[in-house]
Design brief:
The protein is an alpha+beta fold. The protein contains 11 helices and 12 strands. The structure holds adenosine-5'-diphosphate (ADP) and magnesium ion (MG).
Amino acid sequence: MRSEFKFIDDIRSRYELSRIGDDCAVMPMDDALDMVITADLLVEDIDFRLEWTTPEFLGHKALAVSLSDIAAMGATPRSALLSVGVPERLWKTDFLDRFYAGWHDLAGKHCVELVGGDISRSPDKFFVDSTVVGDVSKGKAVLRSGAQPGDLIFVTGFLGGAAAGLEMLLDGIRIDASPGTTTRHLLLRQLQPIPHVATGKLLTEYALPTAMLDISDGLTSDLIHLARASGTGVLLTADTIPIDPAIFAFPNFSAKALEFAIGGGEDFELLLTVDPENCDLALDLGFHHIGKVTDPSDDYRLARNGKIEEIEPTGFRHF
Ligand code: ADP
Ligand code: MG
């Protein structure tokens, strides 16, 4: 079956759509600024389950995923549109008020103003469409396509926590049952992700990344998106991938920790490539050096236990 990535590639070439393919579309705004814009769709029982989360966390996450795309361009978010499809069973409760409260808590932290949206009745499931608009100094948006062979690959923080949190939810562990701190940390990595907006902006100010995107699908999938856009290969080194230490507090997770970090999505850390001259600066900022950009003929590879393996996109796919 055709994947959603292939579908997007097809419409891009069929209709010659040059602005599709990055975390945000970049469009000229005035002499000083470019506009960035992104949309994200979250559907009940596909992207979230209501029995796993709270309306407030869901409102937070609906905005966080879009803010993360703005961060991945090194841009500043400004305004948002929020559209919701609401089944009657939820309309009769305080669900939507609590959802908007969670959304606004995060929006307030980033001075994002809600400027519109739409509401429709949905036959069965709740869904939300989040659009965020931002801006960035003219020509300074960080694209996925700027990586060069020889650049170093960095990630801004620990990976795998969101996937471990998801596994806990699948195992029946719930945030409202007052779990211990480590369990709560992993659940929150899944339910209430933090978009790295300030870090993204700082990185553009330093002109540090040659390419960047946020990790939503999973490290290998997103790294392959970056490599394809840049027309390069990549080599990841398994033992340098920063695995969320909380995962090791759970013995049944230890064997899966690398898999969570590589294949699990939704950590919403930023993945960036850096000219080797700027390696010290990236390390000083606390980022983790996890591999390098290679020639296109080297494809997409992972060095693990003294061996080199081909990597495949293993993250979440809708189709
Ligand atoms: P991200 O994970 O960063 O939000 P996606 O994988 O959702 O990015 O989308 C990749 C690119 O494809 C983006 O540029 C996005 O705007 C575009 N895109 C996704 N879905 C559609 C669609 N239905 N129509 C047009 N463009 C789309
Ligand atoms: Mg993204």
